[in-house]
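Most newcomers find our protein records easier to grasp once they have seen one. Read left to right, the backbone structure tokens trace the chain's path through space. Nothing more is needed to start thinking about how sequence determines fold. An example says more than a description, so a record of this kind follows:
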Amino acid sequence: MEKKRSNFSGGIGFVLAAAGSAVGLGNLWRFPYLAAQYGGGIFILVYIILALTFGFALMTTEIAIGRKTKQSPTEAYSHIDKRFGFNGILTFLIPTIILPYYCVIGGWVTKYVTVYLTGQHTAAAGESFFGNFISQPVAPLVFFAIYFGLTMLIVVLGVQKGIENVSKVLMPVLIVIAIGISIFVLTIPGSMDGLKYIMPQ
């Protein structure tokens, strides 16, 4: 008897999950200072163009291949053409290599969430807080393990009960937080000078 594959229950869940995979921590963490370092507005303009052309085309292609073949990423490419089977290996290796990197940063985020929820946000704002945390021999590994465990649990729960349900909660929360941070930043003295810098000239 063929095992039924788990699928998204609706379009909204799929869109939010896809957005969650596309909008990584780099967009929120590294993007602002990279934009400032490499030209401000022109950097953002080139980024948007590449995201709407290459990024969108690649994402659409991967979705189309998955729908057409109904195979796992490691087998879908060879199912279309044996010559492109190596792409399936890459789709497995690249996330495997990236996973520890994201779990380290995710562990940092988990630490700060814990600190905030326990009312220690004033201490967390100190200049030495982060350095003291990552220099400890055990604490970063503990939060790494917590984040990795939560990630593993979501994946084990499956597409609908895990990935889709979590995306429906966390993605709207992320949007609200991003809007809130943007509004707060605009209230900081000198923010208009920064806004002018990132606007394409």
